[in-house]
């Protein structure tokens, strides 16, 4: 097929509908391009449980081997398990997944050795150019020495590495409901939690890339309903929800109420600062709660505010030597995990924090959840720039108000803030607001929405 990759290659990964937008013939070209751009003589691949994933991953491996690279296939895995392999083996990697997208989608998350991300500015643009060129002119000539393709199981080693970073062996016994959403959490969770003082209640652990029960996107509250109900029915201590490739983890307390990812970021930040002697930088994006930098400072750390998006977080992690980073979307990044994101490691921290004391989770996280937030609210607008300019004009001259343009427009005072960011792919403005109390937050949110939707 002649490739039109404009809708397929995103800022940080490859993602599109199979076979409409891409197929195994293109995957093979991506494998060859990946080898040429990274200069890799060896690499590692993994894939999720989507029906198209094994074939796409095998085709990528063929293209890479044809170009002279030795490929280690770790097979079924979570994205953070692939990052583990990249870090532990010191190899570039490619993970075949479309994360939380519907079943007809698939994609590739690529990284250099040590799980360093490959994005538009770090090789992905050149990979796209080569695939487009070769899709028209034909695949490149094979290397003088083709590479080999071998299999290796990393699940036990991955689980052992995570458990080496958080001691949960002496916690009180906990009942934990886990909703894997028929995704890769069903593959990794039983091994990671094996032998720990945890009574595991599995929900949708059967690997099924058609997602028969609900979408594998825990950022949507509708996809947490089953977990919340099961936590209450079981009288469980907490619930965990993973997305399709199990790199994000959402937490539900003993009441069946979702816990803000900002509160989890603050909780884990405090624990990681304690592990690192009460000092170090912690990265947070600009729409996490103000609780996060407050907790970081209270525990001796230095908060570093960044734009939304894992490429910005990972870049700041590397440049600052930060020990931890967190996002509102429940991505959690760890220095001790090659600066990569792993929801499973964050989940172990939550289990350790909860099991190391006697309070219920709702009481434990209350100290980290100090403000009232709106969550992200999307509005369809015809002209994003005009609406953002209208907000700027409405607030620019108000006393006590500051504006900044780090990512979209952030309007803030001592008592509240909100951020408006345009979507890069849709005619949307995304609003996040936070205040000291619910009434103030609602007032700020509604005033901003009235301008956005005017």
From TrEMBL:
Ranges of residues in domain Alpha-D-phosphohexomutase alpha/beta/alpha: 7-135, 156-256, 266-371
Protein's UniProt name: Phosphomannomutase/phosphoglucomutase
Cofactor: Mg(2+)
Keyword Methyltransferase annotated: no
Keywords: Isomerase, Magnesium, Metal-binding, Phosphoprotein
Domain Alpha-D-phosphohexomutase C-terminal: 376-448
Source organism of the structure: Streptomyces similanensis
Top-level lineage group: Bacteria
Entries under NCBIfam families matching the protein: PRK09542.1
Pfam families, sorted: PGM_PMM_I (PF02878), PGM_PMM_II (PF02879), PGM_PMM_III (PF02880), PGM_PMM_IV (PF00408)
Listed InterPro entries: A-D-PHexomutase_a/b/a-I, A-D-PHexomutase_a/b/a-I/II/III, A-D-PHexomutase_a/b/a-II, A-D-PHexomutase_a/b/a-III, A-D-PHexomutase_C, A-D-PHexomutase_C_sf, Alpha-D-phosphohexomutase_SF
Family listed: Belongs to the phosphohexose mutase family.
């Amino acid at each position: 097929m002649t490739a039109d990759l404009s809708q397929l290659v995103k800022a940080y990964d490859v993602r599109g509908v199979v076979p409409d937008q891409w197929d195994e013939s293109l995957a093979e070209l991506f494998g060859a391009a990946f080898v040429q751009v990274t200069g890799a003589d060896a690499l590692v691949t993994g894939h999720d449980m989507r029906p198209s994933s094994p074939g796409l991953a095998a085709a990528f491996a063929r293209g890479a081997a044809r170009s002279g690279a030795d490929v280690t296939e770790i097979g079924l895995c979570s994205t953070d398990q692939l990052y583990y392999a990249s870090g532990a083996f010191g190899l570039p990697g490619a993970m075949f997944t479309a994360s939380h997208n519907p079943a007809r989608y698939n994609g590739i998350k690529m990284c250099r050795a040590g799980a360093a991300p490959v994005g538009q500015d770090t090789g992905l643009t050149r990979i796209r150019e080569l695939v487009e060129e070769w899709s028209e002119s034909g695949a490149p000539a094979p290397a003088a020495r083709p590479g080999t393709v071998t299999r290796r199981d990393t699940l036990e080693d991955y689980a052992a590495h995570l458990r080496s970073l958080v001691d949960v062996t002496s916690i009180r016994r906990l009942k934990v409901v886990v909703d894997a959403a028929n995704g890769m959490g069903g593959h990794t969770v039983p091994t990671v939690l094996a032998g720990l003082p945890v009574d595991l209640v599995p929900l949708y652990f059967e690997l099924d890339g058609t997602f028969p029960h609900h979408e594998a996107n825990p950022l949507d509250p509708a996809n947490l309903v089953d977990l919340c109900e099961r936590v209450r029915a079981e009288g469980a201590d907490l619930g965990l929800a993973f997305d399709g490739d199990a790199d994000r983890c959402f937490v539900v307390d003993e009441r069946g109420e979702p816990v803000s990812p900002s509160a989890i970021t603050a909780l884990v930040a405090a624990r990681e600062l304690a592990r690192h002697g009460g000092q170090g930088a912690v990265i947070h994006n600009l729409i996490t709660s103000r609780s996060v930098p407050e907790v970081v400072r209270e525990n001796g750390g230095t908060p570093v505010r960044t734009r939304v998006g894992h490429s910005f977080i990972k870049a700041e992690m590397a440049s600052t030597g930060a020990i931890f980073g967190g996002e509102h979307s429940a991505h959690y990044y760890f220095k001790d995990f090659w600066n990569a994101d792993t929801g499973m490691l964050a989940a172990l921290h939550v289990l350790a924090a909860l099991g190391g004391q006697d309070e219920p989770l709702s009481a434990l996280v209350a100290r980290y959840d100090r403000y009232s937030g709106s969550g992200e609210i999307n509005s369809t607008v015809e002209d994003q720039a005009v609406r953002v300019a209208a907000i700027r004009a409405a607030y620019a001259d108000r006393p006590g108000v500051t504006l900044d343009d780090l990512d979209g427009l952030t309007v803030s005072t001592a008592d509240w803030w909100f951020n408006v960011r345009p979507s890069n792919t849709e005619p949307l403005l995304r609003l996040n607001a936070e205040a000291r109390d619910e009434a103030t937050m609602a007032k700020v949110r509604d005033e901003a929405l009235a301008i956005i939707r005017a």
